[in-house]
Design goal:
single chain, 433 residues, Molybdenum Cofactor Biosythetic Enzyme, Chain A, Molybdopterin biosynthesis moeA protein, domain 3, 4 domains, seven-stranded mixed sheet, six-stranded mixed sheet, 30% strand
Length: 433
Amino acid sequence: MTDSTSGPSILPTLAGCYADHDPNALPVEQAQAIIAAFVTPVQAIEQVALRSALGRILAADIISPINVPAHDNSAMDGYALRSGDLRADRPTTLAVAGTALAGDTATLPVAPGECLRVMTGAVMPEGCDTVIPQELTQAAGDGSIVFEAGLVRAGDNRRFAGEDLQAGTPALPAGLRIRPADLGLLASLGIAEVPVRRRLRVAFFSTGNELRSIGQPLDAGCVYDSNRYTLFGMLSRLGCELIDMGVVRDDPASLEAALRSACEAADAVITSGGVSVGAADYTKQIMATLGDVGFWKIGMRPGRPMAFGRISSNGKSAYLFGLPGNPVAVMVTFYFMARGGLLRMMGAADAPLPLLQVRAQVPIRKKPGRTEYQRGIVSYDAAGLPQVRITGAQGSGILRSMSEANCMVVLAEAQGNVAVGDLVGVMPFDGLV
């Protein structure tokens, strides 16, 4: 939900930057680039407690206030010593001056020919620069230890102050989505609160007179609305604040009211259905009257029809992603079109999804001329090498194909048929869905 801006449309200008732009056959990469150039991040910033920061987007660089570790320390249990005392021609024998535990604020003095028993994390005694692991030593029987030549080199098993992070250097960058390891890193710096972008508010609804919500009777010719539940799951994984507006009927008044209400309450609006050329698809004309919206036929399968732009009502505006109605097409266009735009709105740094190269286990049919996203299953052959097969029928209404799959097989626009053993691009669902 942002303040509405007036002025000429900029979406056609962005699209026109591509010399071969054709709204009837827009390549995937161009559509993604237009979306990335059109949307802007939310500006509001919040300070949140560390335990509430998981999954949030950092709004500023985090600078380390301290050295980590704060002191030179031992990397393991053993004996701290002076490397000058190491003998290269015979065993080294050293007198044990005492013991230092992790957390001790002072250590005993260590003279030449002596060592100090240290636990992992203990501060290195002054003058000592090496640690010999205790399992490599033997007791000499008179308060000394002995160990063979060549078991340790100068500087071994010693951590330097600031080795992990130095005071005044960046610890985490703005735009990072905070992960469990990042929470631990922030805690190690003594940071209790961090600045994060406000959660993105996303309103979503399905369109269609044939749709019924769970719990309603399923009349002849009707289907249960699954798209809102997959959108709920995908948006929840992104960490968005959700506004579920239910099912909206295919009539102009209902659609306009829903779109106006959505853009007055949210930063982004996602619809499913109503962006093709069907007789009852009023969404296209209403979106066009409410704002700067482009309607595309993208060179992809599934998910060819899509609307994108910004709509306004009563001085408020929101970015709009009008997705197709078929269940698989909704998920594919969300992941490969809407997701990147939403992350940019959230202030997240660009992080392309991983595309692995895996050998095809079975032939895959594909005509050149559009990007295809086929649902696949990665398994491992007898040699332990990954291989991929598609789940079967790839129709855009077969939602079961997404549930059975563990990856998306990404077949580039110029790609033709795939033979057994050919390498294909695979995008794992783990971390995506």
